[in-house]
Every structure is written in structure tokens, then in C-alpha cells.
Amino acid sequence: MREVAILGVGQVPVREHWDRSVRHLAADAGRAALLDAGVAQVDGIYVGNMTGGRLNHQRQLGAVVADALGMWGVEAVKMEAACGSAGSAMRQGIIAIASGEMEAVLVIGVEKMTENGFPQTTAALTTAADADYEIEQGVTFVGLNALIMRRYMYEYGYERRDFAPFALNAHANGAKNPNAMFRQPISMETYDNGRIVSDPISLFDASPIGDGAAALLLVPAEKAPRAVRVLGSAVATDTLAVHDREDPLSLKASELSVQRAYAQAGVGPADIDLFELHDAFSVMAALSLEACGFAERGEGVRLAQEGAILPDGRIPICSMGGLKARGHPVGATGLYQIAEATLQLQGRAGAAQIDGVDIAMTQNIGGSGATIVTHILQK
Q1: What is the pTM of this model?
Q2: Is the confidence at residue 118, as pLDDT, over 90?
Q3: 160 in a domain, yes or no?
Q4: Which pLDDT value is given to residue 135?
Q5: Residues forming the active site
């Protein structure tokens, strides 16, 4: 298998893009990645998207995006794994290059969510849960994560405000990212006064939806020796329904995918300089840190309280705002994470740049942990 490199990066700012359709957002990010890489044509296009068929009345996004880019004839398909769609598209692109099947692949994550009413958007997102045993009972993802967070607090003796460092870090970092949806730091007082969405989750414990697209241009590493290399790429699954898991406070798919990625890369937690985790909810950030070996069970929150997740901490997370401040256009999030990690490794992260980043890891979660994709990158 060949080594794979990231040659180009493209992003669209996460916003309410009233003047751009899902087609145009994807094409904008794709063109930016092509321009960044200095490449005009690719062999394949993999598109990550979750809600296009339901919210935008547009399926066939592979062909739609190829058409918008003027690349008729190339292999182009859409990948769907709920909020893990973009990470899954990235993995397919890596496999295509590593296998020798393709020489240049464009991977794009895109989602347009803000022009629909709240009930329609919530219903579309809920389809990532178990239709027979969770959705049927009227549960939403905020509700599911509220139950998980409440259990975590009960098991380990935390209060809601103990989770505040995750939100404060994300918003402070997002203020340095021109592509972030929210670019203002928040105070502890602001966090404390956040409106409760589903007890104990407040506005600052949950990521906002948005419109956005991010893209990467992949090539064989031998053709781009100075480009960021992909050291590890792995995906794992768990039960779709949270209540079917042996332990609802254990992200088993995270453990499995990260161990596979660590093995491929020949590294461990101590070697990771930056972790772009999937902080859709504060409790998920804590569980991810624990599952990936950065903290013992029940210690993820304490790690944040000690400042270890800050830009100058032992394991910086969400360096450009994460899902909370950058925003969470669900089918694009996994590629925003990888794009941001790539920019950090290249020294192109601007005001958000962290010194000394040589190896970065990203983890993209679909649903409440049913699909988890891990990537490890090196300078």
C-alpha cells in the first residue's frame, strides 16, 4: 500500500449561506483545494453529506459536485455515516490512493442546514439514531447526550459547570479562526447563564448547526514529499442505540478505531501534539479524551479543568474552535477537522497556530458513537 499525502486544502466559512446551494458550497471548497494543490484534474471525488436528500431535496451529490466542477466522467460518489460522513469520505479517498487505483482524489464534505425550519432540521438529524427503538420514542440527539452527560455526572461526581473548560477553550480558539461561525471568547459567567436546552446540556454544551464545506486534495506521498502525510486511518462501529451498549459511558468505536490508527502510525497518545476531537456535546469531548488514552475513565473533565486541552497544554484540542465555535455542518465536519489539523502541521493556521505540532489526530463521530473515524497526520 502506498503512503498518502494531503496536497491541497479548501474551506468555506461556516455561516448561514442564503445565496449558495449545497452544490455551490461543495464546488467552492473543491476549487479552493484544487487551487491550493495546483492540480486541475482528479481521478475521483468522494463527497461526505448527511441531510442533502431530506433538507435540500438533492441526492446524487457525487455526480452533482463533479458536474459543478466540470469534471464529467470521473468516479464520484457520496458517502453517508451521519455526522461521520466526511471522515468516512476521507477514508475512501485514502484507500483509493493507497491501493494504487487513483493518483489524485478530491474529498469534499458539505452540508446546508440553516434555511429549513427547526422541526425539519431536528427530524433530519434524528435519523442518525435508531429508528425502531430511539426515534420511535421521540428522542433527539440533544436528549440522548443529556442522558449520557447526566449519567457521567452521577458516576463521577461532577456538576454541569465542571464541563465549562471545553466551551471556554473552543470559543477562545474560534475567535482566531476566520472560518468559524462564532468568533468571540466567552466567560465563565456567560457559560453559567447559558440557556438550558435539555438538562443538563446548555447552549454552550452543544454545537450549532451551520452551512459549510471543506475539501482536501489527496495524492501519493511519493509525488509530494513535502506535503502532510497520512500515518493512520481507521473506522469502527458500535451499536446504533445507546441503550444497547454494555456501558453507555464507553465510546467503544473510538477505542477500536484509535487503536487501529495508532498501530498503523506506530505512535501512541504521548506522541500526539494536537487532537481535533468531535465536541458536538461537552460530554463527548470528555469521553473521546478517555477513549483515546489521554485520560483515565471519568478523568476527561478533570483533564480540561487542569488546562491540558488549551493551546499550550499537554494535549491541545479544537485548536480552531471545534464544532462548538467553528460550527457543525454535520456532513462536512470531519473534513474541517482534517483541514484545520493540516494547516496546523503546515504552519498556516494564522492566529490560531500552535507551536511544535508534528503529529496531529482527528476523530469524527457519527450518531452517538455508532461510527467513529480516526486519522493521524504528520508534518
Answers
A1: 0.98
A2: no
A3: no
A4: 85
A5: 83, 328
